[in-house]
Each structure stands twice: as structure tokens, then as C-alpha cells.
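Q&A FORM
Asked by: J.P.
Topic: structure of MarR family transcriptional regulator

PROVIDED:
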Amino acid sequence: MTAVAVLNHRQLAMLRAVAGGRAEITCSCEPDLYVDGLPCCDQSSARDLVQTGLLRAAGTGPTGQRVTAALTDLGRAALR
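REPLIED BY: S.T.
REPLY: Here is the structure written out as C-alpha cells.
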């Protein structure tokens, strides 16, 4: 079973928000996700999405700075 096969509804909603250009992520080894400018209610799931390679920062910046969140190829595949 792949990581994509076990995504819950909340994680899929996070990926859809990123795909819609509504999300930012902090530059950090433990990144935080923001949707529509508000902190995501499930930061552990957001970090899991980064660690499993579904989500990434679109740019770079100093630690703690928010940058645009982007889907990886695997993240885009999870939404199909």
C-alpha cells in the first residue's frame, strides 16, 4: 500500500487547498501549513504530507518564513 492510498479526507482537503493556490508553508524542518492565511488545524498531517513527498515549499526563505506551498508530482497524482 502506498502513502497516497491511505490519505484521509482532511489531508485531501489540504492538498486541494494547495492545488488551488490558497496555501502557504513555513520554511522549516517541521513546516506549518496556512490556508487562506490561517494556520491549519492539523499540523501533524501537514508535516506528514511534506515528509511523504506530497507537498513542498515552492521557494526558499529564512527559517520560519511563509512561502507558497506546492504539490509534488505525487501530490498531484493523489488528487486524481
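FOLLOW-UP: The longest helix spans residues 9-19.
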